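Supplementary Methods, section 5.1.

A reviewer requested that the exact input to the structure prediction be made available. We therefore reproduce it here, unchanged from the version used in the analyses.
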Amino acid sequence: LAFEQLKAKLAAEGLFAPERKRPLPALPRRLGLVTSSSGAAVRDVLKVLQRWPHLQVLLYPVRVQGKGSEGEIARAVRYLGGAGLGDVLLGVRGGGALEDLWSFNEEMVARAIAASGVPVISGVGHEVDFTIADLVADIRAATPTQAAEIVVAQLESQLRRVEQAAERAGHLFAGRLERARLRLQGAEGARGLARLPARLQELDQRLRRLEALPQV
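The structure derived from this sequence is encoded token-by-token as follows.
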């Protein structure tokens, strides 16, 4: 009942509206991670993020269940989302019973996510779990691992675009070089160019004769 009441309240305020959802930055360089420092979720996330070693990760350790944990989560999101320390935030925890995930159903957490200055990806529980944080976040991931995959996929997509652009530029340069080579080959057999060596030899001989004249 509490879940449905809060859900209806926040929906009426427009916090779940698709138009307020923000896309990920094209090239995130710094990631803020809000989760427990000792749970399986942080290990799963960091394992995926290792595929992109240039991504800076700032972990804000919090309790993800139990009395008072919602305050820690909200403070972490407000701090990382408002201090300019990250380009994107991940709020994650592993699976569990409804009561274990309840911190992510608290209003203060939902409002902290909504007020974040950078996009937030929520990855709470397993595929079947759904929390208020998931609804407010800019992107909902089914698991903590998928939350990290979304960020890495964005970076890998940008890398492919750069590689494709470099390949196109290489093909363009090679094409221009080949056309220039063909033009040079065509000019090599041209009448004026064919007479150039003989003309140079003639001028050289005239210069030698001039040099042999007595100095006045």
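Residues 144-188 form the longest helix (45 residues). These observations are discussed further in the main text.
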